[in-house]
Each structure stands twice: as C-alpha cells, then as structure tokens.
Amino acid sequence: MAEFDTIDDLPADSRVLVRLDLNSPIEDGKPQDNRRFDRHAETVRELADAGHRVVLMAHQGRPGRDDFTSLAGHAEILADHVGRDVAFVADTYGDEALAAIDALGAGEVLLLENTRMCDDELPEESPEEKAETEFVRTLAPEFDAYVNDAYSAAHRLHASLVGFPLVLPSYAGRVMETEYEANTAIATREFDGPVTMVVGGTKATDVIGVMDALDEKVDRFLLGGVAGELFLRAAGHPVGRDVGDTDLFDEQWAENRELIESVLDERGDAIRLATDLAYEGSDGDRAEVAVEDIDEKTAGYLDVGSETVAAYGPPIRESDAVFVKGALGVFEDERFADGTVGVLEAIAETDCFSVVGGGDTSRAIEMYGLDEGDFSHVSIAGGAYIRALTGEPLPAVKVLEAAAADR
Fold it and tell me: Do domains 7-180+393-406 and 185-390 have the same CATH topology?
C-alpha cells in the first residue's frame, strides 16, 4: 500500500485545493459526460459535506489541439454528479481567481480555469522546480491543504500535480486511493490461484513492455488487438502488418520486434494467441478466418474470432485474478465487439479479483450493459495504469508519500 495520507486525515474546516482529472472528449465544443466526473464527484461531495472550502483544478486537452478548451462546461457536468453547485471562474491564479477563492464559504465548491492555460503547468520538470513556479507560489498561500485525486495524470511532472505537495500538507482523494490500491495489486498482492492478463488495444508498445515487466507475476496472457497480431507475426503468420491506409503495425513491429520475439521465446507456453480473426466481409457483415488459413493479409482484422473467444473463457474462469489492458477488437462497432465483451462477460461471471484498465476498454462495460459491480475495479487511468503495472514510480504519488513522511 502507498504510504500517503488520505482525506480521512484532513483537519476540520480546511481551505482545500483539489486536483482532479476531468479531461473529456469534446464534441461541438462541449465536454462529454463520462465516468471521471462520477468518480471524482465522490471526493468533492465528501469534502463539501464535511464543511471544507473546496477549490478544484483540472486540465482539458493540450495547447494547439482541438480539445484544448475552457472548463466552464465541466463545472456544469460535475455539479450534476456532486449534487450541489460548482461555481466556475475563468482564471487560474490571477486576481479574479484569488477573489473568488477568498469569497468561498464553508461547503462551497469552485472550479478554476484549465491549468494548461498557465505557462508554468506543462513543462516536465522536477517537483522542486515546479514548487518554485509563480503558479504554485501564488495559489498555495490561499490554502490549508492540497488534495490530489488525479491518479490518471499521476505519471506527469506538471505543476498542479507535483508542485503543491512540497509547500502544503497533502492528501490523496478517493479516486487516487482506490486506483492506486487496485492498479498496484498485481505487484503487491499474493494470489492463491492463476493470474491472467488480457492484452489488447492499439498501443502495442505499452502492453509489450507490461508483458515483459510482469513476466513472473502473470501465469498466462490472452492476446488480441494490435499486440496480438504482432505476436502472431512473430510466430510466423502473415499478419500484423499494415494494409491499405492503416499505420498501426509496421512502425510498432520495427520498434518492438526483438522484445516481442524474446517474450514469445521465453514465455511462449504462457501466451495464448488468437486462432481466428474477424474482418468486414464483402457484404458488410462480420466474417471470420482461421489464422492457419491466412496466406496473405488483405483486410484489416477488427476482432478475434469466435473460436478464440470461446477458448479464452475457461482460463479466465479458473483464475484467481484477471487484469485487462486494452480491448481485443474495435468494440465500438457492434459487429466487432465479441472478443472484448466475451472476455468481460467471462470475468464478470467469475469470482476473481479483477481490474479492467484504460478508459477505452472500461467504456465497453457501459456500452454493452455489463454491471460495473461485477468487477473488483474499473480503472479510469491509461498511462498511469501502465506505469503501475510495470512498477514504474508515479511522480505525483511519490510526492504525496514524501509529504506524509515529512508530517
């Protein structure tokens, strides 16, 4: 377990600066509601109900990108989830923000403008350098405590994440607490039975690194997605390469070929590869082909096939723990959701410890009417989940631990 303080340790009647991660898809200029709002609302509600003065920070997009926008709309969505007003100020640490913070009453909630609109926020620098920025030095004196609830951004060395714990008593919010505990379980917990990891998604580089790092912690890997095709390529099949205008495979193959081949060579007995793959047939319907029957890749494969889905069920059902990183197919298209949903259904029916990681994969639970309560933990983190699985330290967690040690 992490050695940080939580909001259970927060002194009464505090002025609290809280970092959330409300980064959302933007459509027609408006943020879309998602699981992050609901999760963070628990921390915000608990702090406000306890009578603290609650000031929130969050980011949205990056400068220069289409999703880089104000947080005004985020405040409205969050208010619906929290069940009380969330005021918004279009300023982060200027006079307008400071005046709004000063005017806040007990139990009131205020959201500051997008932290990434501040020059001090983004450059990756040491916590010590971030603590000296104008952003941190201006805001910190306004508060009694800092709470970090943004586990999904905890791998970043940004001012709002690592600067404040050096100058304020610091605590973990509920999302930070539960995400950290679940996502580090693979490294910190002992399981009685087999540990299985489902590996998919499009970022093969990430998951191949995880497979290598978790070599001794995981008994078997069930593969699909881009990583699954690249492993099939390493096993001698004519797949795992780009066709048409795709650019998912060849670059990642060149980057990871040696590692894939060594993992396959050393752990081949623990790695289950797809025996059939699904693609879009000439009539637009789902079509499937056995991997052994593929002489040349002429179509994009969009899911594992039904034989593979059936084969992945039994090893999941006899596992004591199952970790999911990445979808096995393009589940957003109902025709190619069988692999991802089939695996999730098998996990849901099994009495095992289970963590479903990555925002995209967790969306499938909602899309296909599965019950989130059937999983031990559904993570809203991507990069931080990868870091936790590979045992890499998370800078924002390290500074919370240091703050607790200094108290």
Answer: yes
Sign for the pseudo-dihedral over CA of 407, 402, 120, 183:
negative
Cβ-proximal residues to 397 (8 Å cutoff; 6+ apart), any chain: 2, 4, 154, 176, 180
φ, ψ of residue 253 in degrees (nearest 5): -65, -45
**How distant, in Å, are the alpha carbons of 235, 291, 308 from that of 274?**
11, 8, 5
Nearest C-alpha neighbor of 82 from the set 178, 18, 30:
18
pLDDT tens-digit readout, 203-224: 888 888 888 888 889 999 999 9
The CATH number fitting domain 185-390, selected from 3.40.50.1950, 3.30.1360.70, 3.40.50.1260, 3.90.550.10: 3.40.50.1260
Measured CA to CA, the distance from residue 303 to residue 274 in angstroms comes to 10
C-alpha triplet 327, 328, 329: angle, nearest 5° = 95
What is the fold, at CATH topology level, of the domain defined by 7-180+393-406?
Rossmann fold (3.40.50)
Compute how many other C-beta atoms are within 10 angstroms of the C-beta atom of residue 273: 20
Domain borders along the chain are 7-180+393-406, 185-390
Task: Name which of 185, 187, 182, 157 is nearest 396 in CA terms.
Answer: 157
Rounded to whole angstroms, how far apart are CA atoms 296 and 334? Answer: 26
The 10s digit of each residue's pLDDT in 249-304 is 999 999 999 999 999 999 999 999 999 999 999 999 999 999 999 999 999 999 99
Measured between alpha carbons, how far is 219 from 276 in angstroms, rounded to an integer? 23
Dihedral of CA 82/88/91/93: which sign?
negative
Give 301-335 pLDDT, tens digit per residue. 999 999 999 999 999 999 999 999 999 999 999 99
Please state, in angstroms and as integers, the Cα–Cα distance from residue 117 to each residue in 63, 96, 108, 160, following that order. 8, 15, 24, 12
